[in-house]
Design a protein that fits this description.
Blueprint lengths: L4 H20 L7 H20 L12
Helix pairs in contact: 1-2
Length: 63
């Protein structure tokens, strides 16, 4: 299965943002700092996932 870099980035960003949002909402109050943390988690996940290339199919590195 081939997954594009953009699809991986979107899923990674949503996962990071959801994780940060759930953690921030534990006290049922969302502060500005927590909002910034959520945004930075999403942007960081997008950037890191976008920068790392997909593994080429057909190549084995575990031999």
């Amino acid at each position: 299965m081939k997954i594009s870099t953009i699809a991986k980035s979107i899923v990674a960003g949503l996962a990071a943002g959801a994780t940060a949002a759930v953690t921030a909402a534990q006290d049922q109050v969302l502060t500005t700092g927590e909002g910034v943390t959520i945004v930075l988690a999403v942007l960081g996940a997008w950037g890191i996932t976008w920068a790392v290339p997909n593994k080429r199919s057909g190549t084995r590195t575990d031999i």
